[in-house]
Structure formats: C-alpha cells, structure tokens
Write a structure and sequence with these properties.
The protein is mainly beta. It contains seven helices and 46 strands. A hairpin with a 2-residue loop joins strand 21 and strand 22.
C-alpha cells in the first residue's frame, strides 16, 4: 500500500463524513428536539440466552441487524470481520477445512487471540447452535441479526468460545407473507442470486420459510499453468427451510434445515521462494550426496513485507480432468427447538442439532513456476456431530433472575482416504489412492452443566455470576479400519480427558438512564488435543522418537480475562459510544513447529506440523465504537481497537536454530547461540490496530425514490507470520463503496470492493521448500551416519486478497 493510496482512502472517508456533518452539525441539539425519529435503532440481543437490549447487556458486542447486513454488503464472514473491531478473519487458503479444526482458512482472531493450526480460538453458532467446520459459505440472507461477542463466552456458549463467539440469528416467519429476490453481477464472472419466501401455512399457528442461493465467481488471477483466469474460481449452492409452530400461546416449536454445496478450483496462494530469503542465511560449506551442508542450523528467513507476485500456478485442468475439484464440500445442518412458558413465568427450552459435512480437497504446490511435489495431493474427510441442550429459565422481570441447563455434544470423523493426481498422468484423468479407505474413529464428546444468577442489588447496581463445568473426552484414531495397530503400544488410538470449571462474574452500574459501566472477570479454556502424526507412512524409529518427545499431543490452553466497559447514548439517543479496556492472561498458547521424520513411501525425509504450547502470553487492549445520526439523511460510524498481544514466555526451537552462529545447541554453545526465548515478541497472525470508518448518506428525491451513498474504510495494521516477528504482511486498507436508489419495493445498488486495489497478503504461513534439501548440524540425530539433521531451506506460503471488483445488485422485496 503506497502513501498516496493511504491518503486517498482517508480523504474519501473524511469527505463522506464531512458531507453529512458540515451543513447541520451546529444545530444537532435543536434538531434532536424537532426530529425524535432520528434516534438510533434499539437492538435486542440474546448473548446471555435471553432477550436483552444491546445497550444494557454488560458484554462487548457488535451487533448487525438485517438492514445493516444489506446496507453494508456483508456477504461472508470476511465481510463481517471487516465491519467489526477487534475481529480479524483472513481466509487466505481458499474455503478448505472441516471439523472443529476448520482447516487453515478458519482462523478467527478476536482481541489478538490468534492461532495458526488446530481448533480455532473463537466459535460460530447459528441460533445458539455450535457450527463445526468452515463457515465461509454459510448463507447470510436469512438472518435477523449477527452478534459478535468479544471475550471468552465459555460459561453460557460453551465449547470453542475461548476468545469469543459469533452468533448468526435467523429470522422467524410470521402471519405476513414476505419475500425477497436478489441478483448480483460483477467483474470476474461474479454472479449471485438468492431469495426467500415466508408466511403462514396455518394462520396464527404454523409458519414456514424457504430460501435458496446460487453463487459463482470465475477467479480474478491468471493461471500460468492453464493460461486461464481461473485462480479463485468458486461455486456455491445453498438451500434451507424453516417451520415455526405455535400450537398454544405458551408453546413454540421450530425446525431448521440447511444444505450447502461448494465446488472450488485452486485458490490464490503462492510459495514466496527461498531464493528471496534475505536474513539469517545458511552458511554452506560443502555437500553430501548432492545435498548442501550447512555449518549452522539456520535455514534462512525473509525479513520484511512479503509482496503479492504477478503470476500464480495451479494444476486446475488436471484436477478437473480427473473429475475432481480443488475443494468440494457438502454440508447439512439442522436443529430443532422447543420453547415452553409455564404458568408461573418460568420457561423450559430444548435445542437439538445434527450436522454432517464431507470434504474432498486437492492441493497443488508451485513456487516461482517450479512444482514442489510430483503430485497434486489431497483426500476425503467426513465429520458428523450432534448436540442437545436443555435449559430452565426464570421470568425476566424479577429482581432475581436465573437459568440452569445441561449440554451434550458429540463429534466424530467418518470414513476417508488420501489420494494423489499424478502430474504425469493427470491429463488422462487417473487418480491414485495412496492410503487405503479407512474408518476414522477420531472425535470428541463434551458433557457440561451451566447456570447463571442475575440480581438487582439496587435500581442502578446489578451483579451476575455464570459458570459451566464441562468434561471433554478426545480420541485420535490412526489405525486402518480399526484393525491394524500401526503403532505398537496403543499409539494408534490416543485418548485424553479434560475437566474444567469456567466462571464469569459481572457488575453493572447505571450512571443514569443513558449510560452505564460494567466490570467482568471470566475464565476461558481450550482443551488440548493430538497432533496429526503420519503414523501410516513413518519409520518406526521416528515414531518412537516422536512419542518420547511428547510430539503426539499438546496441552489445554487457559485464560483469565479482566474487562472494564462503558455504554452511553447522547443527543436524545442520536449518538452512542461504547468502549472497553481489557487484560487477558493466556497460559499454554498453542503455537507451531515442524517435526522431522523419515517417510516410508517414497523414502524421503520430511516434516509434520506440531502444535506446541507457549508458557505465557498476554493481550491488553482497548475498543471504542461510536455511531452518530447527524441528520435525517446522514449517519456515520467510527470504531477503533488496539490489541497489545505479546508472548511472555516461550522457548521456540525454530528461533534457537535461526539465531545459531556456531552449530551447537543450547548450553553447548560458546558464542551467540540463542536459547530460543521469544519473550516480548508479538503474537503472530493478528493486527495491533484496527480502524473502521463508515459514512451513509440517503436522500428522499420524492415519488418514493431514495438515493444513497455509503463508504466503508477498514484499516488493519501489520501482522507477523510467526513468533520471530520478521516476515510480515504490512498494513492493509480496504475501501468499499455502495451507491444506488430504492423505489417502493425495488433497490438497485452499484458497488466497488477494494477500491484502493489493496494487495496486502491475507495470510503468511511459515513452511519449507520441499524441493531443496539441507543438512544442518544436530548431535541428537544422524543422517547417513553423520551428526546431521536433514531439513529444507525455509519458505513461506502466502494467501492473496481479492482484486478490485465493480458490480451491481438488484433487489425486489414483497
């Protein structure tokens, strides 16, 4: 991002704001008295399992209504993050991933709490139901509201809400027949159509809604392999329906079903190339069997901002010739809710859910036009989960309010296999299955009890205490069909149990009718788990070494968070300000290292990704969010968050190797050999600063015609690739515009996304160039009888952002 583009983005945002504020800002107070309709809309949220005003609930929440979603053009989770302070979601490697891990593209970071692989630190929910897997293709057209809740939500939401929760709240059909039809055309063969119809099936008793969506994007980067613009090609089909039954005034029953199908080609990513490394370079002294010998352990590194290249490579034609896709996913999601209100005002709630997803993936590897592997690799995976929650709640209008509940969740992997498409025979459509079809018994079960007490000490002071006690049982299965134990001693079937008590205490004080402050102390946890050791293709000596080193598992992560917050409204509720400061003490943060081993077929050295635990981390920060309705035709929003996310104690083996100057290890070093401590470095994959500026103008032209203009600028500061804080993305500036008009039931919108042509990498992942081997000194291991470790030159895999896109959307509502 050049300085000129920064100035342009800030200038446009400032101009949009000033256009609305200059004419009438001097008369704001008088206008408030004359035009009470200018008051900001009250939003009701359910972040604490009951309906509460967003202004009153003592939590840091950014909420978007259906109108907000439509006006800002939120069409994906990435769009949602761009409108939410303290929430970063960079989908750098396509829409891959399933299960709780969600793949490398499911990395939501809230309040600086990011991770690189493993289960995400924040979780997604639909109507309070946990969504396993990648939510990237979830249809956002059927929503009444989105709630992004910052801070651990373990007490009431439960599993996966270590850093926060994102809850999609779907709308309920009513007696009124309503519907919408929407069509979008854009650059790069972007086409999307969606719609819904809802209304009564039996008046006052049974209601229904049906919705559907088709989305396609032809890709925005040229493919040097195929000669086509097919990098980033995506297709999605969505279908859903809802039945809402109210047989009595006290009983309501709701059934939801959703189907999604994704078919993607190769995504816009690339290997940076080890030849671009410019710091901590190896010191080559010779070679053995053609492999360079390094006098030190550093494999080289890149220091500075990584830039997006001019060309990309993906074996798309070969993948399609084999009858496959880069990513092919089918997801089925359903839940069933029953709510019954007793005569005394107490209520009983039941939520049952069942989800099923199947993923087929193929990944190609190129760097600077050179294939990193002889094959396009991938496989099939299957994940099923079901959950049940029962909850009993007291009336919401008493001085003492309470709820209590029980919860059960079960997730398991189904059948799967791995395969390759031969680069030589791909044009013939031949597929090779390298590992036999197997039944994977890996999974997790969660049982918990939870509750909350909310008490009004006075009219102004309210205290609440929430808690959850949960037991997580995890199992990893590496055996073939449960018959062949690939690792003696039960190593092919690993089990672990984590028992945790998760409290949250809150005090809220109403300063007056228009402002309040709150204080919160909460505990969060993220259960440990098992690393994906490739036991099926690993020599026995390395299996023994890996288990001796404890590389098969990682420990539970723990968090204590402390927060002070403020919520206030001004000018007869035409302006609002929310703010908070927080401090997170994070223990056992999950980070990553590469673990070396010898592959059986083909017999070559390589590595697998190992999650390791840092000792201590700390995140402290602040958040400010203000909205102002300056006139009846202009409103704007300015929001800012700061996350000082810092590692406090972590011995990083890669840092130790990177800083090596003598080839020795640890205490054996005589000069300059770091022990790998990265205390004081910033947590990777998360920005320190986040700024959002939005301005919305709308003017009534008469004859039921209203024109509008909206601008949204989102700034995120630099993100580091890893704990070394060397390779980085640079700052990003995303500017979007939407303009058009409405007439009665019709709306026509013209949009431009990424107007400044921002090219900041979405994600940088530290990897190796598996085409270039390297021997480094290591007295703990041997290679061909010598005290060397076989490794590779350092490289990075980088995800590219969407290009600038122009388009138009037409909407008809009835």
């Amino acid at each position: 991002m050049t300085r000129n583009r920064l100035f342009a983005g800030v200038a446009v945002a400032a101009l949009t704001v000033s256009m609305g504020t200059m004419p009438r800002i001097a008369f704001a107070q008088q206008q408030a008295q004359a035009e009470p309709s200018l008051a900001l809309e009250e939003i009701v949220v359910t972040a604490r399992k009951r309906a509460e005003s967003l202004f009153d609930v003592p939590l840091s929440i950014t909420a978007f209504t259906a109108a907000d979603i439509e006006q800002s053009g939120i069409d994906s989770v990435a769009d949602l993050a761009n409108q939410t302070i303290g929430f970063s979601y960079k989908q750098g490697f396509g829409r891959i991933g399933s299960g709780s891990g969600g793949g490398s593209s499911n990395r939501p970071a809230i309040r600086g709490m990011s991770n690189i692989v493993g289960n995400p630190n924040a979780a997604f929910f639909v109507d309070g139901v946990f969504v396993s897997g990648n939510p990237s293709s979830y249809q956002l057209d059927n929503l009444e509201r989105i709630e992004v809740i910052r801070g651990p939500q373990s007490a009431l939401f439960g599993r996966g809400t270590f850093a926060g929760a994102i809850n999609f709240v779907t709308r309920k059909p009513t007696n009124e027949i309503t519907g919408k039809a929407e069509v979008t055309y854009g650059q790069y063969d972007h086409f999307e159509t969606n719609g819904h119809v809802s209304g009564p099936l039996i008046e006052d008793r049974l209601y229904g809604e049906i919705s559907g969506r088709y989305y396609s994007f032809g890709g925005d980067y040229m493919n040097a392999v195929t000669g086509k613009r097919d990098i980033g090609d995506q297709k999605t089909k969505n279908f859903g329906f809802k039945l809402y039954f109210t047989p009595t005034d006290q009983l309501s029953i709701e059934a939801n079903y959703g189907y999604a199908e994704d078919q993607d080609l190769g995504y816009a990513d690339f290997f940076h190339g080890d030849t671009k490394n410019n710091c901590f370079l190896p010191r080559i002294t010779g070679s053995f069997a053609g492999v360079p010998i390094n006098a030190i352990r550093s494999q080289g590194y890149f220091c500075g901002e990584i830039e997006i290249p001019n060309q990309f490579f993906y074996f798309n034609d070969a993948i399609r010739a084999a009858g496959l896709w880069g990513t092919e996913r089918i997801a089925l999601r359903s839940h069933f809710k029953v709510d019954y209100e007793l005569d005394n005002g107490w209520s009983v709630h039941s939520v049952s859910a069942k989800n099923h997803s199947e993923d087929n993936q193929l990944i190609d590897n190129f760097t600077d036009g050179i294939r990193l592997a002889t094959n396009v690799t991938g496989g099939q995976s299957e994940v099923k989960d079901w959950s049940q929650e029962f909850r009993l709640q007291s009336p919401a209008d008493g001085q003492l309010r309470s709820l209590m509940g029980v919860y059960y969740y079960s997730e398991g992997n189904g059948a799967g296999f791995t395969r390759t498409v031969s680069s030589l025979a791909a044009s013939l459509g031949r597929v090779t299955v390298t590992n036999p079809y197997r039944d994977d018994a890996s999974g997790v079960t969660n049982r918990s009890v939870f509750g909350m007490i909310d008490y009004d000490f006075t009219e102004d002071l309210t205290g609440s205490f929430e808690a959850r006690y949960q037991v997580d049982k995890l199992q990893a299965d590496n055996n073939l069909d449960g018959i062949v134990d690939v690792a003696p001693g039960g190593r092919g079937e690993l089990k672990a149990t984590y028992k945790t008590f998760l409290p949250r205490a809150t005090l809220r004080y109403a300063i007056d009718d228009d402002s309040n402050v709150y204080a919160t102390v909460a505990r969060g946890n993220k259960p440990g788990g098992f690393n994906a050791i490739p036991l099926l293709n690993m020599v026995q000596a390395d299996i023994d070494r890996a288990f001796a080193d404890g590389a098969e598992r990682y420990e539970e992560e723990k968090l204590w968070t402390y927060e002070l917050g403020y919520k206030g409204s001004f000018l007869d509720n035409r302006a609002s300000l929310t703010g908070s400061v927080f401090w997170n003490d994070w223990t056992n943060q999950g980070l990553t290292n590469g673990y070396p081993y010898l592959r059986i077929t083909p017999p070559t050295p390589t590595t697998f990704i190992r999650i390791v635990n840092a000792g201590k981390s700390r995140v402290r920060g602040l958040e400010l969010d203000t909205n102002y309705r300056a006139t009846d035709w202009f409103d704007f929003r300015v929001a800012y968050s700061y996350n000082d996310a810092e590692i406090r104690d972590y011995i990083d083996e890669n840092e130790r190797d990177l800083k090596d100057t003598d080839g020795l290890i640890g205490n054996e070093a005589t000069q300059g050999d770091s022990n790998g401590q990265v205390r004081g470095n910033k947590i990777p994959q998360t920005p320190a600063h986040n700024l959002i500026v939005s301005g919305n103008l709308h003017y009534d032209m008469g004859n039921d015609v209203e024109v509008f203009l909206r601008g949204d600028l989102t700034y995120e500061s630099n993100r580091f690739a890893q704990t070394h804080n060397l390779a980085r993305t640079g700052d990003s500036y995303l500017l979007n515009f939407r303009t058009g008009f409405t007439k009665e039931d019709w709306t026509l919108t013209f949009f431009v996304n990424n107007a400044l042509k921002d090219k900041t990498p979405l994600v940088i992942t530290r990897l190796f160039n598996f085409n270039r081997g390297l021997l480094v000194p290591d007295p703990r291991l041997t290679f061909a009888g010598r005290p060397f470790r076989f490794t590779f030159f350092r490289d990075f895999r980088v995800g590219a952002p969407r290009k600038r896109e122009f388009g138009a959307t037409a909407v008809y509502k009835f």
